[in-house]
Design goal:
The chain is of the alpha+beta class. Helices cover 16% and strands 39% of the residues. The chain has two helices and eleven strands. The strands form two sheets. Strands 1, 3, 4, 5, 6 and 7 form a six-stranded mixed beta sheet that branches. The protein is globular.
């Protein structure tokens, strides 16, 4: 089963297309469009349409190993509000209004993996620009990290 999910992930992220993926460099800031973003020294953030208006997000290392993939049944949509932000410490934050997901992906350098936290259930220090954007555009009453 795990192999099947892994294979689907790889195919979804790398499926053949007549258009080449847009490449961007990002150090810190918002991710708003489909592209393969070179991030920091060794990571890539990929945002790609998988069907209709559904978008999936993944983080890979320089060799293409998937370090994090957004759940396939909780994708972003062009029809709903979503927000994604990367900081210069290799952490990624996103909010998906479709499912009320408030995720902080915190890089654990010792274990070489991302720790996933719900920033509305646990109070963490969000990047100021991301925090302000959420306060202005999302209805997250009771979110601990926005208080």
């Amino acid at each position: 089963m795990k192999f099947g999910v892994f294979l689907f992930t790889i195919l979804a992220l790398t499926r053949c297309s007549s258009e080449s993926p847009k490449r961007e460099n990002i150090r810190e800031g918002f991710i708003t469009t489909n592209a393969a973003y070179s991030w920091g020294w060794e990571k890539n953030v990929i945002v790609k349409n998988i069907e209709n208006s559904c978008k999936i997000l993944a983080i890979t290392d320089e060799r293409g190993k998937v370090l994090y993939q957004q759940p396939i049944n909780r994708t972003f949509s062009d029809h709903h509000y979503w927000l994604c932000y990367v900081d210069n410490k290799e952490n990624l934050y996103y909010y998906n209004s479709d499912y009320g997901e408030a995720k902080a992906l915190i890089w654990n350098a010792e274990l070489k993996k991302y720790d996933e936290k719900n920033f509305c259930f646990i109070s963490i220090n969000l990047p100021e620009k991301f925090r302000n954007e959420l306060k202005n555009n999302a209805t997250l009453s009771g979110c601990l990290s926005l208080k």
